[in-house]
Amino acid sequence: xxxxxxxxxxxxxxxxxxxxxxxxxxxxxxxxxxxxxxxxxxxxxxxxxxxxxxxxxxxxxxxxxxxxxxxxxxxxxxxxxxxxxxxxxxxxxxxxxxxxxxxxxxxxxxxxxxxxxxxxxxxxxxxxxxxxxxxxxxxxxxxxxxxxxxxxxxxxxxxxxxxxxxxxxxxxxxxxxxxxxxxxxxxxxxxxxxxxxxxxxxxxxxxxxxxxxxxxxxxxxxxxxxxxxxxxxxxxxxxxxxxxxxxxxxxxxxxxxxxxxxxxxxxxxxxxxxxxxxxxxxxxxxxxxxxxxxxxxxxxxxxxxxxxxxxxxxxxxxxxxxxxxxxxxxxxxxxxxxxxxxxxxxxxxxxxxxxxxxxxxxxxxxxxxxxxxxxxxxxxxxxxxxxxxxxxxxxxxxxxxxxxxxxxxxxxxxxxxxxxxxxxxxxxxxxxxxxxxxxxxxxxxxxxxxxxxxxxxxxxxxxxxxxxxxxxxxxxxxxxxxxxxxxxxxxxxxxxxxxxxxxxxxxxxxxxxxxxxxxxxxxxxxxxxxxxxxxxxxxxxxxxxxxxxxxxxxxxxxxxxxxxxxxxxxxxxxxxxxxxxxxxxxxxxxxxxxxxxxxxxxxxxxxxxxxxxxxxxxxxxxxxxxxxxxxx
Length: 632
Fold this sequence. Notes:
The protein is of the alpha+beta class.
């Protein structure tokens, strides 16, 4: 037989062998084997809210070897197929695999032909498509087995056949999108979302066509653009020209692509001046603590109920608050700190979270949720809810607003017009009448009421603080609570007596099994108080916004013609200022107070009173400004 006929026979044999391998290979390929590491949090619009830093794992283990094993993998925020931007799929398949979704033409026959071509050339270059890039960049490379040899290319080609047999095109594309890259400017970052942020500080669904093409090209081979992108702002026009020429090169010349090219010529590359993904913020601390509430077997994907848009709006409210109280931001070495939580009442989801002015340590008090602060008169609705439920009180019940000589404890904070008069429970809330409030003792045992309420708070996972003593003064806010505790209690009041556990997460996914570990929409309600009694409390709370009420001064900051519920409070000497504000659907809890940082430990000891010496005039203003920004 002539040599040329032997060569043809070998080529045909190799081709048929590859095809038969694809058809009869029995095993399946696990695309998730080497995709272990997730340590970023985003919202549903792909906005990155927190990156937990270099070599940080959410994996809960005390085994150092196991931690180190996980830490060698990159940070990966997972994106689903339905979230992929149209222009990403367009440019990726254009650059890597134009017939990616056409199973027969490119992914079987084409790879077989490329394998024969390599055999003839004796070289390892060329012929890779999305599946082979995935194998090279994610699986082989991270296992340390990737090489530039011909044998590796054939191994990838055979594995790619196996991959296409066992996984859909969508699964392969998502695996490539989330784990490919490990690009040069962030050695332990991978995937589309972080590539987009590292270059542009924006999520991928906000990139124009020119920016997306550059991102896709960088993920494919970051080293080609390394020199230019190191100084990308200065080299912006050069990079743009390179991308336009590259698109002309891969274009098929159709009218649609000509129009796309013309549009791209008018676009700008809006580079970020620096990569801010590494910065640690109060929100990062908050989300990291929340993540630690779960004990997964491996790293998980966290998608937050907190939205970047709302965080930005809350920052605007914070700036307004600082501007209003600029002369009071520091007193006697103490700094005016504050916290705000915005809650969706029905779901229990935390929609925005604001920490302190500038000291990350303060927010940890609210996100680690340590001992909290005395919550003042905002506790009164909870005490009266207990009275409504178990002691035959109602909104029309009356109490004496004056000193009772048989009792040693007779608080101040009175309304002179109502002093020594019998007042309704509504007036107790409206004017925050302390004398009348404690005088429920004429009909009940205050300590027993407090202990009964403690049991209900425990049912809501609000633990007791051992540092305080339950007494007759409990109703005035001697109990210590955090903003989260208070938000949880009021969420229950406004949700017809049903509690949903407050959460910063919408859902949590195990990216390996694709199982949803936590879904806040499916969280069960827990009945704490009867609906009829919480409704009575709700009907009373708007009185605070009537003339003379403790929340009346907030109306100029709030949207007009809406019904609001609210309660303010301060503790002894007005060291803490509190306000709870709601429209019945959304809930704002705000705390304001002076803190001093002494060697890394925050203290309130010796702190001055909050501005205006009232909850409404301090925390109330912050709550109203926050509501106006979030829910105008």
